[in-house]
Design a protein that fits this description.
The protein has 228 residues and is of the alpha+beta class. Helices cover 26% and strands 26% of the residues.
Length: 228
């Protein structure tokens, strides 16, 4: 965490996003820094939000191709030693976008990443929220496991077979099995664990996709330029 913020605060000067990020509605998040194509916020817990204007739209699959979107997002997660939790296409304030969530294990805790990517003609608006498990970990998993065993929805055999697996490919083994999506990662349990970092990144992802940005001609010109 310290090294992340040392990098963000290491002297890159404010730049040319086509919006002033300080004017965005970001309750509970403190603005930290603006760079040429990115802005950063953090909250009192030390979690992170970033907004990036990326020029690499050509690398992103069409939002209409569900399988390619899932594969793309899984590859992003895998490149970070992380397991994919979910992928969805939705409508945001700037139009159609894809949202996805993945998690990375830093023993004994998980870090959760949620991303919303909105394609422009020549680039992408990308929101990212990063939230960390702190203090006692594994409570959500333990409570949900107990509930599922008590209700008969989970047995020792089914636990071994299905507790942790990729949401779209049950045979996927590209990362450590401990980082794959758990049954307790389902959104159905967020209400029971509102302070869990996974519940937090889902909640913030829904809010951030509803914030109007500036996906217009000015933005499209910016993504075609190299930073000075």
């Amino acid at each position: 965490m310290i090294s992340f913020w040392q990098r963000i605060l290491s002297g890159k000067r404010a730049g040319n996003l086509p919006i002033d990020p300080r004017t965005l509605s970001m309750p509970d998040w403190e603005f930290v820094r603006q760079e040429s194509r990115a802005a950063y916020w953090r909250d009192t817990a030390g979690d992170v939000v970033s907004l990036t204007l990326s020029p690499r739209a050509h690398a992103f699959p069409p939002l209409s191709d569900v399988r390619k979107l899932q594969d793309h997002c899984r590859n992003v997660a895998e490149s970070q030693g992380a397991g994919l939790i979910e992928v969805a296409s939705t409508a945001g304030a700037e139009g159609a976008c894809v949202t996805y969530i993945y998690k990375r294990l830093n023993i004994p805790a998980f870090t959760f990443f949620s991303v919303a990517a909105t394609p422009l003609a020549t680039g992408l608006w990308i929101w990212m929220i990063i939230a960390y498990e702190r203090g006692t970990t594994g409570v959500r998993e333990a409570v949900v496991t107990s509930q599922l065993f008590e209700s008969g929805q989970l047995t020792l055999e089914s636990y071994e077979a299905s507790w942790a697996q990729d949401p779209y490919d049950a045979l996927y083994q590209g990362v450590d099995r401990r980082t794959l999506r758990y049954r307790s990662d389902a959104a159905d349990y967020d209400e029971d664990f509102p302070n869990h970092p996974l519940s937090k990144v889902r909640r913030e992802l829904r809010r951030l996709t509803g914030i109007p940005l500036c996906a217009d001609a000015a933005a499209k010109q910016i993504v075609g330029r190299e930073p000075r």
